[in-house]
Amino acid sequence: MARRLGPKHKLCRRVGERLCASDKCPAVRRPYAPGAHGPSQGRLRLTTYGTQLREKQKAKTVYGILERQFRRYFEDAKRKKGDTAEFLIRLLEMRLDNVIFRLGLAKTRDQARQLVSHGHITVDGKRVNIPSFQVRVGQAVAVSDKSKSSPYFAAVLPGLAKREPPSWLSIDPAAGAGKILSNPSGEELKQNFDTNMIIEFYSR
Fold it and tell me: pTM of the prediction?
């Protein structure tokens, strides 16, 4: 299972934004460039290429995926008829690990990836251990019956009643399950990175 290794908050500090789901992200506590002179110096002005590269790196960091797989998502989105930027975000959002995160079954996408890869999640009643698995409209995602009794899910599931997932998802807190109602669209596709810049980067 390929995944992004290294300091998780390094890029957050570099761009001055919280790209992770952690409330303790250093980019929030220290919103300036890293280094001894960070507080007193401004951030460098980027070229168009530099800005495009930064937005791509931000997206990869948010979803925790590597370059080869991210490029493949772009190529898949480009082959579809319509807005490539919209299709790219949709492919990222419909990853199984992201859906688990959006439903509130995990606090972060990294944690959601672990839950999937360790066999705790089912799709339409069948166990799926591939975090990048693309879910489809109408499919049901759930915590496996065996895993529901684990200390982790025993603590998490009661809190789902207070969780309000995106409108393209529904959740049944008692069952520890959710359903994909539709494809994410419109405001639901907005992210803290510029998808059009990413498309321009790969279209050079």
Answer: 0.82
Share of the chain above pLDDT 70, in %: 79
Same domain, 148 and 164: yes
- For the beta sheet containing 169-172, the strands, ordered from the edge strand earlier in sequence to the opposite edge, are 126-127, 121-123, 140-143, 177-180, 169-172
> Are the C-beta atoms of residues 94 and 63 closer than 8 Å to each other?
no
CA–CA separation, 11 vs 26, rounded Å?
Answer: 10
Closest residue by Cα to residue 73 from 49, 42, 98, 36: 98
Whether 16 and 87 map to the same domain: the answer is yes
Q: What is residue 11's three-state secondary structure? A: helix
pLDDT at 3 over 80: no
State the CATH number of the domain containing residue 25. 1.10.1050.10
Same domain, 120 and 47: no
